[in-house]
Amino acid sequence: MGESGTGSPRRRPSEKISLFGIVSFRPRVAVVLILLTVTVAAVAMRIARDSGLRRVDLLTRDALRIFAAARKEPVPAPPMAPDVVEERVREWTGIGLMLPRDDEAFSFLGVSRESVGRRPAAAVRIAYGEDFYVLVLVRQETLRARGGPSASLFSESGFISGEKDGKSFVFWETDGGSFILVSDADLTRAFELVRRHLT
User: Could you say which of 30, 125, 142, 178 is the most buried, measured as most Cβ atoms within 10 Å of its Cβ?
Assistant: First the structure.
């Protein structure tokens, strides 16, 4: 005689009820879904990183253009006071910049209102020793993706540095701003200036 139809059918050993009791759990399907999720996340992170690098590349191009124009400007006498430079940067971009005041090798040669793409920016011309630098500042959200106000291009603890067209540059983000320092000084000196005095 066959078994009664009123009892529960026996489950195969490879199947278990999920936590929600709705669908069966199959180990092979679960592994495939996990691998698919990890792959999609990795691709999304790579796309976001590449998008960030493209945006930094565009910012670098504008910063190099601003640097070339600033190189042709006459050196003012006397240099500007740091608090005047900071106030103008705050007025134009909303960024709270803190410039060094305790190192006599610094000289602030001027600040100008600029644009990065169609975005408002500020450029601070700096002499440090015999080297000339231009610090370009843009409010961070103007460079962010459309993902929302909390999305940042890169970790705030990181830097991107390199050389382009014979100029060195250092990019970083902090305190709601995106910063890029451009110079024809050696990249090591530019990076050390950022690390010791501007962050």
Answer: 178
Let me know if 47 is exposed, middle or buried by CB neighbors in 10 A (0-12, 13-18, 19+).
Answer: exposed
117 contacts 63 by C-beta, under 8 angstroms: no
d(CA 140, CA 116): 12
Length of the chain: 199
Walk me through the domains of the chain, giving residue ranges and CATH numbers.
58-198 (3.30.200.100)
Cα-to-chain-centroid distance, residue 131: 25
Q: Is the whole model's pTM more than 0.70, yes or no? A: no
Report the C-alpha gap between 59 and 49 in whole angstroms. Answer: 15
Pair of tokens at residue 158: 């990181």
pLDDT digits (tens, 9 = 90+) for 97-133: 899 988 888 999 999 999 887 788 999 999 998 999 9
d(CA 83, CA 70) in angstroms, rounded, equals 21
Q: Is the peptide bond before 76 cis (omega within 30 degrees of 0)?
A: no
